Fold this protein.
Amino acid sequence: MLKTSTLCHSHDHHDQCISQALESAEELCAQRGVRLTPLRKRVLELVWQSHKPLGAYDILEMLSREDDRRAAPPTVYRGLDFLLENGLIHRLASLNAYIGCRHPGVAHNGYFMICKQCNNAYELAQHTAIDTAINAEAEQMGFTVESQMVEIFGTCAACREQA
């Protein structure tokens, strides 16, 4: 079974989140027979550097600055597409940004709490009650749900304490 990262607010991402995400990605790609190229791996590592969602151009800038790479936007988008297709990251549509998936390789709906002050985003565990409520409403409307991503904006505990 693939390892999943745990949600914690103060920890060293390099020691915990990034290493677990990379290990899970390598295991998942090996199981699926797909290739986790060095660039795809680096993009995943950059996405996992914090709980802040990153846009494609943020990732491109980091690749240029930190790795001295001359990657073109299509290259970064292809890497992000690969990571999305393989369930290793999520795209937060409202922010047009990407964040690491806490449950790689497991089909699930995305539920995110996004702090408007610090911009951290946290993926919640699956909530059967939410899924049931959405599907019941959709059924009443004759609507077929194909996928769902719930993005909830507010203020995290750490930001509230600082205020």
Notes: DSSP finds six helices and five strands in the chain. Strands lie at 89-92, 97-100, 110-115, 121-123, 149-154. The chain has one domain: 17-162. The two ends are 41 Å apart (CA to CA).
